[in-house]
Amino acid sequence: MSKLLNEIKDDTRFVQGHTLQPAWFKVLKIFILIGFLAGYLLLFAWRKTLIFLICFLLLMLLVHMVYRIKTHKFTQTWLDFVVVEENGQYRYQRIGKYYYFAILVNALLSLLASQLLG
Predict the structure, then answer these.
(1) DSSP 8-state symbol, 92
(2) Do residues 11 and 68 make contact, with C-beta atoms less than 8 angstroms apart?
(3) Rounded mean pLDDT, 27-53
(4) Terminal CA-to-CA distance of the chain, rounded, Å?
(5) Model confidence at 19, in pLDDT bands (50, 70, 90)?
(6) Which residues contact 79 (CB under 8 A, 6 or more apart)?
(7) What is the pLDDT of residues 5-17, one digit of tens each?
(8) Distance (Å, whole) CA 77 – CA 67
(9) Are 115 and 48 in contact (CB under 8 A)?
(10) Cα–Cα distances in Å, from 29 out to 34, 36, 72, 118?
(11) Among candidate residues 18, 11, 9, 5, the one with its CA nearest the CA of residue 81
(12) What is the pLDDT of residue 16?
């Protein structure tokens, strides 16, 4: 159990400190998600909104884990995840089209699931 907690702490530190997206966008995407969920709630009620949120978060966790595994804990380049090592420190270039395409696909799948299951 402590190994799992350590892995979660490592991922949390990475997510908070990475340079894959500008700092302002890290904050903005939270407000985008909250705004979308508020609109979805107004249109489709709690059940469909909750189904959408759960599906979306699980699918995004899957994307995170795929990137984590394929990049060997964010230390190697893979797809649009580019790692540059300078003086023993890792520097990351901006994330690219594959990651954002995965977000779009996950949002659409979550939307479909919430409509069919809700």
Answers:
(1) E
(2) yes
(3) 97
(4) 34
(5) confident
(6) 70, 96, 98, 99
(7) 999 999 999 988 8
(8) 10
(9) yes
(10) 9, 10, 26, 25
(11) 18
(12) 87
